[in-house]
Specification:
The complex is a heterodimer of chains A (358) and B (287). Chain A contains 8 helices and 20 strands. Chain A is of the alpha+beta class and 358 residues long. The chains are: A alpha+beta (358), B mainly alpha (287).
C-alpha cells in the first residue's frame, strides 16, 4: 500500500462525461493507491466502463481531471499514458504470433531486442504459456487467449493495469480459476489494477476496494467485507448478494451511535443517528436471518418454499411486511427441519441489521 | 424438412448453374486450349495437325514479350495509383456512420454507370492535341506546340485507374469498416501512436481488402479493351489488343494461345498478390 508521500496511481477529480443528453459519469472522484486491486462494479449502463475508458483516454471528460501517478493526463492521448489494458474480447492481434503480441508494447516503447526477449519469456512464464511463442491467437483456447492478453498487458510494467470485464467471455469453471490466478499475479507484481465487472462475486473475490456504481455515480466505496456487510443504500444491499429489505421505525434515538429500530414488533439496536419516530429501511443478509419457533421474539412469517442448494438451504418466507429469504447452512447433524406452511419467527443479531440511507 | 432432403434440395438448386458453367465456360475453355495447339487454316478455324508453334512463336518473339512487359507495367502503375489514391479515400469512407457509408458507396459506383466508351472519349477531349489541357497550357504560354498526351501508356493508366478506383475503394473500405475498433485501442494502450497503429495494426489487418482490391483492379486491367484502344492507340497495345488483332486477322489458334498466356499471367500475378499480402494471416492462420 502507498505511504503518505506517494500520490495515488490513479486519481479522478470530479469527472463528468455525457453522450448527448445521457450522463454516463457524473462528477465522479476517486483515488486508487499503489498496488490496490480496485473494482468498478455495477449493472450495465452504470458508467463503469466509461470510467475505465476515461482513465485510459479512449474517452475524454466533459469536466474534471484525470491523473495517473504524478501526471495530469486529461486531454492526453492514450498512447502517452502509462497504463495497459485487457479487453473483454482480448483484442489480440490476429496477424501476430503470441510472442509478437506480447512484444508489441515493448517494441512501441523501443526497448532493446535482448531485453525484449527476456521480458517476453518472463511474462509468458507468469501466465503459464511458455512454449506457446510461435502460435497464432486463433490456435489458442479462450482461456489461453486471455492469458496472452494478460501477458501482453503486464510485460510493459504499466503504472496501472485496466481490465474491462476480462473474464466475461470464459465459462464458469475457467473464470473462477482465472480469478485466483489474476489476483495472485496482481499481488506478485504489486501492480495497481482497475477492474470493471458486473459480477459481484468476482468483485468480492478479487478486490481490495470495490466501488459500486449506479447512474454514473459511486453509491458506495470500500473493501469487499464493508461493502457487503454494511451496505449503505438499498441498491448496494440488493445488487451485492441478496438482502432482506425491511420497513421499520426508530423507537429510541438517544443512545449515541446506536438507535433502536422496531421491525414488525421485533426490536434491534442498530448503528445510526436517526431520531425517534423516523421511518427507516433495514437490510439483513439472508445468511444472518435466524428462524425460531412461533412465539419467540422476531418477525412472524410463514415458510413458503424450501430449496436445497448443497452448501446451504434457501428458505423463502412470507411475512406481513413482504417476502423474506433465509440461508440455513447445511452443517450436518439434525439439520433444519422446517417445512412449507410452518409458522416461524425471523430474528437476527443486532450487528446483522444495517440501516440504509434513504 | 429432414436434413437429408434439405441437402438434396441444395444439390438440386446448385445443379443448373453448375451445368451452365460447364457448358458455356469450362467446355469452351477446354476447346480453346485444344485450338491453341493447332496451326492456322485459311478455310477452317484451325488445321488438323497438333503443334506447339503458337506458344513457341509467342515465347520467341520479342514483340510479344515487349507487349507482355508493357501489360505488366501498365497494370502495376494502375494498381499502384488506385491503391495510393484509394486507401486514404477508403479510410474516410470507413469512418462514416453506416447509413452514410452506404450512400458513399453508391456515389462511388455512380461513374460505373457511364459507358467506358463515353469516358474514354471524355479523356480524348481532355488529353487530345486540341484537348482541354493543351489549350489551357498554350493559352498560359507554357508550351508552344501541343504535348502528346493521348496515345501514351500514361493516358491508358489514367483512364483505367479512374474507372477501376471505385473497386479498390469499396473493397478496402468494407474491410476497414468491419475491423474491430478494439484492435486499434489495444495498440494505443500499448503505446502506439496513430502512425504506428496504422502501420503495425490497421494496415496488416486491412490486407484482405487490399488483396481483393488489387485482384479486381489487376484482372479488370488485363481484360480492358476499349479504354486501352481509344487512349493508348497502336503504340501502347496490351495483351488483350493482340488477342483481338489475331482474331480479326483469322489467326484463331494464335489468338487462343495468347488468351492462355493472358490467363497464365492472371493466375501467376494473382497468386503473387496473395502470397505477398497473405490475407489469410488476418484470420490468425499465419499464412
Amino acid at each position: 500500500m502507498a505511504d503518505a508521500a506517494e500520490p495515488p496511481d490513479v486519481r479522478l477529480a470530479r469527472v463528468s462525461k455525457s453522450y448527448g443528453t445521457v450522463a454516463a459519469v457524473r462528477e465522479l472522484s476517486l483515488e486508487i493507491p499503489r498496488g490496490v486491486f480496485f473494482s468498478l462494479l455495477g449493472p450495465s449502463g452504470c458508467g463503469k466502463t466509461t470510467t475505465l475508458r476515461l482513465i485510459a483516454g479512449f474517452e475524454h471528460p466533459d469536466a474534471g481531471e484525470v491523473y495517473i501517478r504524478r501526471a495530469r493526463v486529461t486531454g492526453v492521448p492514450p498512447y502517452r499514458r502509462d497504463f495497459s489494458m485487457v479487453f473483454q474480447s482480448y483484442a489480440l492481434f490476429p496477424h501476430l504470433t503470441v510472442a509478437e503480441n506480447v512484444a508489441f508494447g515493448l517494441r512501441m516503447r523501443r526497448r532493446p531486442k535482448g531485453e525484449r526477449g527476456r521480458s517476453i519469456s518472463e511474462a509468458l512464464a507468469l501466465v503459464k504459456l511458455a512454449g506457446f511463442e510461435a502460435r497464432y491467437p486463433r490456435e489458442l483456447s479462450g482461456g489461453q487467449q486471455q492469458r496472452v492478453a494478460l501477458a501482453r498487458a503486464i510485460v510493459v510494467r504499466p503504472a496501472v493495469l485496466l481490465l474491462d470485464e476480462p473474464l466475461g467471455a470464459l465459462d464458469k469453471l475457467l473464470r473462477e480459476e482465472m480469478q485466483v490466478e489474476l489476483r495472485h499475479l496482481q499481488q506478485e507484481l504489486g501492480i495497481t489494477a482497475v477492474f470493471v465487472t458486473h459480477d459481484q462475486e468476482e468483485a468480492l473475490t478479487l478486490s481490495d476496494q470495490i466501488a459500486v456504481m449506479r447512474n454514473g455515480v459511486i453509491e458506495q466505496l470500500g473493501p469487499p467485507r464493508a461493502v457487503y456487510e454494511r451496505p449503505e443504500t438499498e441498491f448496494v444491499a440488493s445488487f451485492l448478494g441478496a438482502s432482506n429489505l425491511l420497513a421499520g421505525r426508530v423507537t429510541d434515538g438517544s443512545r449515541g451511535s446506536k438507535v433502536v429500530v422496531e421491525v414488525a414488533g421485533y426490536r434491534s439496536s442498530v448503528s445510526g443517528t436517526n431520531g425517534a419516530g423516523e421511518a427507516v429501511r433495514v437490510a439483513v443478509r439472508p445468511e444472518r436471518l435466524r428462524l425460531g419457533l412461533a412465539g419467540e421474539p422476531g418477525v412472524a412469517a410463514t415458510v413458503r418454499e424450501i430449496v436445497y442448494r448443497g452448501a446451504a438451504t434457501h428458505v423463502y418466507l412470507e411475512s406481513a411486511g413482504g417476502p423474506l429469504l433465509a440461508y440455513l447452512q447445511n452443517t450436518g447433524g439434525a439439520g433444519q427441519s422446517v417445512r412449507p406452511g410452518d409458522r416461524v419467527t425471523c430474528s437476527w443479531e443486532d450487528e446483522a441489521a444495517v440501516l440504509l440511507r434513504a | 424438412m429432414p436434413a437429408r432432403s434439405l441437402q438434396s434440395l441444395g444439390w438440386a438448386l446448385a445443379l443448373p448453374p453448375v451445368l451452365f458453367l460447364l457448358a458455356f465456360f469450362v467446355g469452351p475453355l477446354l476447346y480453346l486450349l485444344y485450338v491453341s495447339f493447332h496451326g492456322a487454316s485459311t478455310s477452317d478455324l484451325y488445321n488438323a495437325e497438333l503443334t506447339l508453334a503458337n506458344y513457341a512463336a509467342i515465347a520467341g518473339d520479342p514483340f510479344y514479350l515487349r507487349v507482355l512487359l508493357r501489360t505488366l507495367e501498365t497494370a502495376a502503375a494502375i494498381m499502384g495509383l488506385c491503391l495510393a489514391v484509394g486507401y486514404p479515400v477508403a479510410m474516410l469512407v470507413a469512418k462514416l456512420p453506416r447509413r452514410r457509408r452506404e450512400i458513399a458507396s453508391i456515389l462511388l459506383l455512380l461513374p460505373l454507370m457511364v459507358s467506358n466508351v463515353v469516358r474514354a472519349y471524355g479523356w480524348v477531349a481532355i488529353l487530345g492535341r486540341r484537348g482541354l489541357v493543351n489549350i489551357a497550357l498554350g493559352k498560359v504560354g507554357l508550351i508552344d506546340a501541343p504535348l502528346a498526351l493521348l496515345y501514351t501508356p500514361a493516358a491508358v493508366v489514367l483512364g483505367l485507374a479512374t474507372i477501376l478506383l471505385p473497386y479498390m475503394v469499396i473493397s478496402i473500405a468494407n474491410t476497414l469498416a468491419s475491423l474491430d475498433r478494439r484492435y486499434e485501442e489495444a495498440a494505443q494502450a500499448l503505446g502506439a501512436g496513430p502512425i504506428r497503429t496504422f502501420l503495425h495494426v490497421t494496415l496488416p489487418l486491412s490486407s484482405p481488402g487490399v488483396a481483393s482490391g488489387l485482384l479486381l483492379v489487376f484482372l479488370l486491367t488485363l481484360s480492358a479493351y476499349v479504354t486501352v484502344t481509344l487512349l493508348g492507340g497502336p503504340p501502347s497495345k496490351l495483351l488483350v489488343s493482340l488477342v483481338y488483332d489475331n482474331v480479326v486477322s483469322f489467326q484463331w489458334p494464335r489468338a487462343a494461345a495468347l488468351a492462355f498466356v493472358l490467363l497464365a499471367v492472371a493466375l501467376v500475378v494473382s497468386a503473387l498478390i496473395l502470397a505477398v499480402l497473405r490475407p489469410g494471416r488476418v484470420r490468425g492462420r499465419g499464412r
